């Protein structure tokens, strides 16, 4: 589903944001990308979303190489992906319903189809009662759930979430992860970037650690996350 082969990303002359990254995320998987600030997590997600392109290496998304993709083909590939940005990027002067519907309308859906999808997703994230509200009247966790709903508007095969729990307290963060699990259980492949190692451990998914742009470790919990003996290094 997502394949990265020897991917390097250098900004300017010598800022190596990603160094020789090999990552394979299979269809239906939920994978955490963990690492400290500046490790390269957002850059990696942006490369998958074709927001940036690698300096060298190969990236395949849904079997299509992104590296030499023509600019006009990028929006079509992006429609197979949903992305939740760190700062949500909701349109401030539009209602929640409008924020969501716009995504479907731009993708060519009818107003009725867009409305139906908005209703379905607001129900999923528990915010049906906020449809006519503007983002500034919502809490951080509510805005985060709207951002997640928006990312799902076009039924993406892949959901990319960049620090989806960054502005949330512990309980809200757990709810957000639960929602990601629910989305994943419905068949969407999910890749979550976080600097919150505890969160990744508790989720128990395959976790890939980035440090200074390199993948330095990868593990998957077998059973209980709190028991180191149950953690299998892969
Ligand atoms: N557009 C850019 N231009 C120049 N440097 C950049 C750009 N984007 C990222 N970087 C640099 O690349 C490195 C990796 O940044 P990135 O945002 O991918 O890390 P991160 O792991 O997501 O960090 P954080 O957890 O703080 O969001 C950092 O040194 C950052 O300053």
UniProtKB/TrEMBL annotation:
Classification via SMART domains: AAA (SM00382)
One of the Pfam families matching this protein, by short name: ABC_tran
Any single GO CC term annotated in Swiss-Prot or TrEMBL for this entry: plasma membrane
Keywords from the UniProt entry: ATP-binding, Cell cycle, Cell division, Nucleotide-binding, Transport
InterPro entries: AAA+_ATPase (IPR003593), ABC_transporter-like_ATP-bd (IPR003439), ABC_transpr_LolD-like (IPR015854), MacB-like_ATP-bd (IPR017911), P-loop_NTPase (IPR027417)
One Gene Ontology molecular-function label: ATP binding
Any single biological process term in GO: cell division
ABC transporter domain ranges (all copies): 2-234
Presence of keyword Acyltransferase: no
Protein family: Belongs to the ABC transporter superfamily.
PANTHER family: CELL DIVISION ATP-BINDING PROTEIN FTSE (PTHR24220:SF470), IMPORT ATP-BINDING PROTEIN (PTHR24220)
Name the record gives this protein: Cell division ATP-binding protein FtsE
Organism (species): Candidatus Methylomirabilis limnetica
